[in-house]
Amino acid sequence: MGRFSFAAAVAVVCAGQAAAWVLPGTAPQQYAEKARVELKVNKLTSPRTHLGFEYYRDLKFCKPPQIVASAENLGEHLTGETIENSLYELYMKVNSTCNQLCEPLELSKEDAALFVKRIDEDYNANWMVDNLPAAAVGLLVGGMPLYARGIPIGGIEDEEKYFVYNHHKMTIRYHDDPSYEGSRVVGFDVYPVSVAQGAKVHDSCVNDKITGVVPDTLPRAIIHDTKNAAAVTYPLKLVYSYDVAWVPSDVQWASRWDIYLSMGNLYNDNVHWFSIINSMIISVFLTGMVAMIMVRALNADISRYNRVLTEEEKVEEREETGWKLVHGDAFRPPARMPTLFSVFAGVGAQLISMAGVTVVFAAIGFLSPANRGSLMIALLLTFLLMGILAGYVTARLYKLFNGAHWQRVTLYTALGFPGFIFAVLFILNLFVWSAKSTNAVRFTSMFAVLCLWLLVSVPLVFVGAYYGFKAEKVELPVRVAVLPRQIPVQPWYLRAPITMLVGGILPFGTVFVELFFILTSLWLDQYYYVFGFLLLVYVLLLVTCAEISIVLTYFQLCAEDYRWWWRSMLVPGASGIYLYAYCLFYYAVNLDMTGWVSHMLYFGYMGLVALAFSFITGTMGFLATFWFTRRIYGAIKVD
Asked: Within a domain: residue 87?
């Protein structure tokens, strides 16, 4: 692997790349000269509809006699990947021009109308060579080519004439090195061209053995004219052709994905560092407040309480502050829905661990974009396996609340949140299925997920609950009084809506910059692979949630309000509301969706994401506050 310096290590962590690693499923492949290099096709995608369609079954393209689907994992099935073979013939280091792909295709009026619809919806074709997706080459910007993910299927000329890209100039870059035999594919660019060709491509192909078809000298392949319908007669013949140029490159195999990471300016390190600095400022500010409370206020209070005082002094001290006065009620179980609180805490712990483990593995490099579906599989498996943690946390908390129905609370934990998610996704999937999109999860895949949930996650939740109820009850530093203490009237700024408004915006403020890039990758069909930055933001988010919950709980206890259980969860958990509001803003400003199914998918998926975000932030706030209250009440002497 060579030397791995400290600077390289920092680059791996911060940029989310793992150039020095050879990871499962991403091992390089060498090709001998003139060896066949297979070109595969994937589904048609669009950033405007988010409904993928099968390449050969939607539009009229040249198809092989026998369509062979590549082996797909569960993650690919869940994301709607449909990788299949093609008629393109590529051979290592063998240049060729004016290759006719198949016999001329006849497009009926209905076929052309579907092409027009897909062009209006900005659909792209997706090809791949050696597991490397094609990058479409567009206009030159500052002398440099502009790359985009996917190959457009057509365009509009003069706002009235629709044409199809029927000729593709492929540039495949390869790298040679004495350390191995053969050549490695390190780049795959496609420049699409529309040209009105004859029945045989060589009749209209300008062949100089380098450029193939020259688009400036030939008319486009027009398939529809909105102002002059009679200008196009049906059925019309369409000829598909291609050029292949092999170009040596100095790019190493481990760096061949860099061009895709830079698409859409997603890989702008300065912006990501700004996100980290923004999160750190918020976290440091809250850390200072917590330190001030712990060091100045609490130490002074505890030392004053622990002094030997006269009866008159004790009365005066107790009138000066309130958090010690509620020691007999500070750990009183929540009066409202203690069972639901226990379940929420367990599910939140499950989501915290799921997100943490997945981001760590992604930052190391195990979830490479070359491993299609790996991120989805990681999220699914970690959520299922962390069911044992959900059962354990729920049981420990429910036992602390003196709960008696352990079977019921365990079932709620095992079936409640996952069942809700499954039901919502199932309903959304029905609409996607009605649109005949490949994004619709097959019922076999859905059944596999259901079996994994019922046969893996549910038993693990019961195992965790078993050990949670078997463990000793959490020891509290003070005893709970028999009768609850009367709560004085609270100042307006300590009321639940106000504290949620303040407490929710700070955790959201730590992630909103990075959230823009995540939404862009999800909904504008771009890659997100800076998981190193995401890991740092995630850690800062958890720290921020812990600190804001501790600070506001301390103020609440000082006001002699001991009902902190639900408040400690709802205050940071309100950040999910801000997240969903930002998703609505992003939808209005950055997205141009068409079709009611696309809108439904966006609002439905983002609602589930915001809900999971609230569970993560709320549970982290509660766990930190529970530790904080045990510490402060364990440090005083109670008469």
From this structure: yes
